[in-house]
Structure prediction request, 609 residues.
Amino acid sequence: MTELNATIAKVTARIIERSAPGRRRYLDLMDREADRHTSRPALGCSNLAHGYAAAEGDKAAIAAGRSPHLAIVTAYNDMLSAHQPYARYPEAMKIYAREAGATAQVAGGVPAMCDGVTQGQDGMELSLFSRDAIALGTAVAMSHAMFDGMALLGICDKIVPGLMIGALRFGHLPAIFVPSGPMPSGLANKDKQKVRQLYAEGKATRDDLLASESASYHSPGTCTFFGTANSNQMMMEMMGLHMPGAAFVQPNTPLRSQLTRAAVHRLSRIGRNSGDYRPMGRVVDEKAIVNACVGLLATGGSTNHAIHLPAMARAAGIHLDWQDIDELSSVVPLIARIYPNGSGDVNHFHAAGGMGWVVRELLDAGLAHGDILTVDEGGMGAYACEPYLRDEVLTWRPTPIASGDEAMLRPAWAPFQPDGGMRLVQGNLGRATFKTSAVDEARWTIEAPARVFDCQEDVQAAFAAGELERDVVVVVRFQGPRANGMPELHKLTPPLGVLQDRGFKVALVTDGRMSGASGKVPAAIHVTPEALAHGIDGGGPLARVQDGDVIRLCGHDGTLTVLAELDSRQPAVRPAEHAGVGRELFAMMRHAADGAEQGASAMLALAGL
Prediction:
């Protein structure tokens, strides 16, 4: 086995040491839960009768308690293209369970909102906190103490992190994530991006834009760009929580069905009484979290995971911070370019070698932990293979040695970039994330006067009025978790891209989010402390920045500074909180949320995790 890279080893050791008290408390709790809640016959007769009253054909097996009983927690709805295929999963999974001598029930459903639908709309202010709601829904589903394992059906942006956080509180049980796969490729992403910019300039009609978007997002399956949803799937492979190679097989295909079948069969074999016990709380350890970070960096994945990974880690008693991710980024090479970092989408990535190729390269280069516990008996080595059907039987084969497309996948010894391109930038404006892998290196350093806004709609208005036709650092503040729920600010991407294409030096600085689809404009996002970091106490330095202040953002030396004296200034007054589309119901989450680097979660903060 290749020796582990020294920096990977150092960061892992630091996380283990820092996390020791919290991790011990978590594992002790899981041990106690395993002793208390893994015997259905211990339930009262009325409890048990309620639990299987509608389980036609499976009542006797569930009541006997001698065979595994599996929980299906589903994020199905048919508005999300990625989740629409889940409609038929539960009935099929019950059949697969019976094949393995087990039983299964839908333990519960969790909400699943689509950031693509809410992008730029008021509902986006619920998006990040939907992750907490999903975690709570998962806990409700699993609270019945009826089950021996968890099949988690979810794919998209906040849904996998939410399922993960909730399921980890039942980490004495094994768990497998069951994806549905990406939709077939539609309109080329570069063509879609071009129409968006033309629309921003008034050179394309709404009908033109809608036709372009509909040709891009056109059928069941995950959106094909490498945003948060597909980054989720990559990380589940890197953590050993999928069946190997399950991430990017398309929906409604024989191979996809057989991977789902294999997941149910495998879950039935790794429970506490199986002789091969693989509880989720042991699978998701410090090394698995580091593997997820490494995969994110190596593939140029979504910056949203700078928030989700610390939150998921906390749910397992592990303390991860942005310095850890920054140091990992310094030694993990960028070996994949998937749109928006490249021209091809996840289908092209999968065809070129996909996750099996990435895992093998990282293991062979000593950049990932090969000794973690995974849901597959073959360990991480099994994830360096690709699934296929041989005479209609699911099997796996080694991934080809050569990349199928060197414009998309390159070996670790000849990468696109020597580092992972997710930098910590910091200075007198706080700490932030800068995804350098998405930006031309010539634009990694921007120093220009600020133009300050309190919402993205005002940026669009200023662009339309020609007020941003210059070198400019656009500051959009009061977009953090406490201020308005930390929405993604994708309305900014087309106009800022247009300004950059016109030859201006442009950057974005915000306490909001941009995600994996942030594109080519330099951006310091998730600025912490946020402008409203301490409620009525005035908040972070962003609240004191004024138009004309010169801001320097540099991805080379990791700086984010304003060349002005801020302490003597009064902070700006935040905009009034808005009601409507349910935002008022999330007031508790906004007021209790902690910082982006801690995971921006009210639930975890209030739980003391």
Remarks:
- Residues 6-118+126-184+219-398 form one domain.
- The longest strand covers residues 445-453.
